[in-house]
Amino acid sequence: MNSQSNLSPASPGASLFAETLAEQRAQQFRMRRLQVHNWGTFNGLTEVPIAEKGFLFVGRSGSGKSTLLDAMSALLTPPSIVDFNAAAREAERSGRDRSLVSYVRGAWADQQDSASGEIATQYLRKGATWTALVLKYANAHGEAVSLIRLFWIAGSGNAAADVRRHYMVAPRRFDVATELDGFDLDLRKLKARLGEEVAHFDGFAGYAERFRHALGIGNEMTLRLLHKTQSAKNLGDLNAFLRGFMLDEPRTFEAADRLVEDFAELDGAHHAVVTPRRQVETLTPAREHHAALMALRHSVGELRELQLGVDSYREQQRLVLLDERLQELDNQDRGLAGEEGQRRESLDNHEQKLVGLEREQRAAGGEQIEELERERARVERERDERLRRRAQIEQACRQLGTALAAGASGFAAQVAHAQTVLDNGKHDASALDEAIAERMGARRDDERRFAEIRAELDTLKRAPSSMPAPMQALRARLCEDTGIAEAALPFVGELVQVREDQSAWRGAIERVLHGFAQSLLVDERHYAQVREWVNRTHIGTRLVYFRVRRNDELHSRRVDPNALPGKLQLREHAFTEWLRNELTRRFDYACVDNAAALRNADRAITREGQVKHPGDRYEKDDRHAVNDRKRWLLGHDNRDKLKVFEREAQALAQRIASCDADVAALRKQREQDQERQLAAHTLVERDWDEIDVGPKLQRLSDIDEQLVQLREGNSGLRALGQAIDTARTLRDQARLERAQLARERVRLEQQHAACAGRAGSATLTPTQLQGLRERLAALTPLSLDNLEAHFRVVERGLAEQLADSQGRDSRLSAQLLECFRKYCQQWPEDSGDFTVSLASADDFLARLDRLESDGLPRHEHRFFDLLQTQSKNNLLALQRHTAEAHKGRSDQL
Question: Region Disordered: start and end of each range (predicted)?
Answer without folding.
Answer: 359-380
